[in-house]
Amino acid sequence: MIGALIARKAIADSFQAMNRHDLPTFMSAWRDDGVFIYPGEIWASGTFEGKAAVEGWFRKFFNQFPKIHFDIQNICVKNIFAMSGTNVVAVHWNINLTNREGRVGQNSGVTVISIKGGKVSHIKDFIFDLGTNFKLNWSAA
């Protein structure tokens, strides 16, 4: 159970770092070989392999959205007894954001996070609205 509490706290802290646009703090939780997968069919979509590529993606994310606020709804931990720093966590979130053109948007999704040795090894985002709203937020419509 303590493993789950530690994982939940670390994940909540990471989402708060994103809300603050604190890229160094956010990236400090990643493994060098980490992988990030972002859905959709826009310029920001795809698979980003390695810490440098992931950091580049999040730098562009912060530039695209000067105002972001993730509101975590639920954090689910696969192995509540894990103490080794290896686990899988699913985070259900809502987001309010303003893009660099001033467009205000909202969305929701689930992020599945694999952690190995206390660091993020793999993240895959599942986003509710990949339609026009999503594309307009990313200035891709």
CATH architectural category? Roll
What is the CA-based Rg, rounded?
A: 15 Å
Distance between the termini: 45 Å
Give me the secondary-structure category.
Answer: alpha+beta
Biggest pleated sheet = 6 strands, mixed
Assign a percent range to the helix content: 25-40%
Low-confidence stretches: none
CATH topology: Nuclear Transport Factor 2, Chain: A
Number of helices: 4
Task: Please report the total strand number as a whole number.
Answer: 6
Protein traits:
Nuclear Transport Factor 2, Chain: A, alpha+beta, 141 residues, globular, six-stranded mixed beta sheet
What does this protein look like?
This protein has 141 residues and is α+β, with helices and mostly antiparallel strands. It has a single domain (2-137), classed as Nuclear Transport Factor 2, Chain: A. Helix content is 30%, strand content 41%. The chain has 4 helices and 6 strands; from the N terminus they run ααββαββββα. A 6-stranded mixed beta sheet has the order 2-1-6-5-4-3. The chain is globular and about 45 Å long. The N and C termini lie far apart (45 Å). The mean pLDDT is 92.
Task: Give a summary of the structure in a few sentences.
This protein is α+β, with helices and mostly antiparallel strands. It is built from four helices and six strands; from the N terminus they run H-H-E-E-H-E-E-E-E-H.
Please give the structural blueprint.
Layout: H1 2-19, H2 23-27, E1 30-38, E2 46-49, H3 51-64, E3 67-77, E4 87-98, E5 104-116, E6 119-127, H4 132-137
Parallel strand pairs: 1-6
Antiparallel strand pairs: 1-2, 3-4, 4-5, 5-6
